[in-house]
């Protein structure tokens, strides 16, 4: 997932209910699918962030020395400015990028 190229909104916006429910015909089913995708996106982002922050980790037992790593701060700021996982999931849903199937 390329987070830099996303067009998902950072702020909360109102969506047309008919557009959300159009692929399934049921708004509750659509929201359930979007919520599951948002959880997947959140897990991916968290894993990616932890991997990047782990590169800057220092392992000392001394409480006296606390380092302020500028690269680590920049990485954290980048991830804070990203759209939230639910916004990314809704954007993917509206663009038809989410695959789903009915369990029978």
Automatic annotation (TrEMBL):
Any one Gene Ontology cellular component term annotated for this protein: DNA-directed RNA polymerase complex
UniProt signal peptide: none
GO biological process, one term: DNA-templated transcription
GO molecular function per UniProt: DNA binding; DNA-directed RNA polymerase activity
Key words, A-Z: DNA-directed RNA polymerase, Transcription
UniProt-listed InterPro entries: Pol_omega/Rpo6/RPB6
Pfam families: RNA_pol_Rpb6
Top-level taxon in the UniProt lineage: Bacteria
Protein name (Swiss-Prot/TrEMBL): DNA-directed RNA polymerase subunit omega
